[in-house]
């Protein structure tokens, strides 16, 4: 059997790399790991968290970004319910609307986190409900 070791990165289309870069930095605390410059123009970035446990790539593709508006392609893992409460408070502090904490099919989640292109992100606990 050939083994997989998780995700290397998730790539999302965006209408504006600069606008989305600012949002993902402010909201998720991600930092630029790689810039993709084509013909002298920034067309994409790869962002990572401080512990380098995840990578989200943003690629300037306005038509594709519009096609994902209203969809929730990414759920990010949060280790505990306590950490999810901290995320909820952080989202409130940075002025980002969200669903609040709710029970998910396995653990707890915060949904309704909408990026500048209308793409929804969710935060899910790895911790299971009793």
UniProtKB/TrEMBL annotation:
<dbReference type="InterPro" id="IPR029068">
    <property type="entry name" value="Glyas_Bleomycin-R_OHBP_Dase"/>
</dbReference>
<dbReference type="InterPro" id="IPR004360">
    <property type="entry name" value="Glyas_Fos-R_dOase_dom"/>
</dbReference>
<protein>
    <submittedName>
        <fullName>Catechol 2,3-dioxygenase-like lactoylglutathione lyase family enzyme</fullName>
    </submittedName>
</protein>
<feature type="domain" description="VOC">
    <location>
        <begin position="6"/>
        <end position="126"/>
    </location>
</feature>
<dbReference type="InterPro" id="IPR037523">
    <property type="entry name" value="VOC_core"/>
</dbReference>
<dbReference type="Pfam" id="PF00903">
    <property type="entry name" value="Glyoxalase"/>
</dbReference>
């Amino acid at each position: 059997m050939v083994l997989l070791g998780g995700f290397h990165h998730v790539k999302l289309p965006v209408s504006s790399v600069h606008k989305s870069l600012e949002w993902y930095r402010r909201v998720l605390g991600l930092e630029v790991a790689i810039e993709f410059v084509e013909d002298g123009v920034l067309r994409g970035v790869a962002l990572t968290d401080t512990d380098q446990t995840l990578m989200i790539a943003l690629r300037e593709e306005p038509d594709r970004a519009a096609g994902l508006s209203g969809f929730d392609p990414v759920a990010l893992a949060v280790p505990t319910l306590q950490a999810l409460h901290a995320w909820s408070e952080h989202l409130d502090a940075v002025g980002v609307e969200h669903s609040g904490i709710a029970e998910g099919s396995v653990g707890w989640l915060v949904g309704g986190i909408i990026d500048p292109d209308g793409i929804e992100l969710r935060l899910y606990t790895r911790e299971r409900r009793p």
